[in-house]
Design brief:
Largest sheet: 7 strands, mixed
CATH class of one domain: Alpha Beta
CATH superfamily of one domain: NAD(P)-binding Rossmann-like Domain
Radius of gyration: 19 Å
Order of helices and strands: HEEHEHEHHEHEEHEEEHEEEHEHEH
Strand content: 15-25%
Length: about 325
Amino acid sequence: MPSAPRHPSLIPTFRSRALPFPCVDIAPATCYAVGDMRIGGPATVAVTGAAGMLGQEVVATAPGWATVVPLTRVDGDLSSADQAHAALLGAAPGVIVHCAAYTDVDGATRDPEQAWLGNALATRHVAEVAALVHARLVYVSTDYVFDGTAATPYTERSAPHPLNPYGESKLAGEREASRAPGSVIVRTQWLFGPGGHSFVRAILEAARAGKPLRIVEDERGCPTYAPDLARGIWRLLETPATGVVHLTNAGACNRLELAAAALEQAGLTGVEMTGIPGSEWPGPTVRPRNAVLASERLEELGLQPLRPWREALREYVAGLCDRWEREPGVDEADDRP
């Protein structure tokens, strides 16, 4: 997201639990709801972050009832109230799918203010427009709102407790999104797919370059394929869901297992790969170790879970390897508009 004027008073002291502006709390009593917010006919759908990995897929997989208005950074800085309101009001949406976000986890640790501008303040402005024009809002969130210390998977009823500034900023975004009546908060994790950077792609590129791999093996999650998540979001919009919904590909693994599966699918053998504890990873951010997401909502809403992550990974890796074979030396991210 483009730089915005600095607002020192916006950012609370990390871990103080104070928030920089009034908002709705995300707690089991307030986030687990089903209301009467079903799409009943054709609708104009504004998609923020439409140039990003997920945003591209949301645009590409739109059903016939949706007239999509893709919005990117070129259309305005969402952390600016004036620019956000102008861009979104100009789209005249009946639905807003808010994919735009500040996603640099380590960058958020180094500069929390940018994360709060991109994830909390920007979402406030999007939610303001949604409330003003009575648009249904979908906000995409993350497993990083949890600390990863639970012995069992986190459901929609689990109380958030982020460990780092990125997670804090995304939780603040959830609270802001909740201010818009009928909003849906979709939590997902470990996203991979065409048109963007991901752990899976980084592993495959390093392996193809002959680099040894050191992979964190004590961090567990649910790998999620962006095209599958996008289709899942559209299906959610065809139900009366409100509140929090967890949406990932089925199954969980650790980072080392995911890397090994990706290498196997790509036919890359003889790669030097070592599992390491997260404490040995050279980064400034404390990350959740076991933040596996599970959903109690999908069955309630009459929706099938997304397909198993290994099946989705197979499709992604096959497409990526085909592209590399057809266009040697071309970076997959060059597809991004």
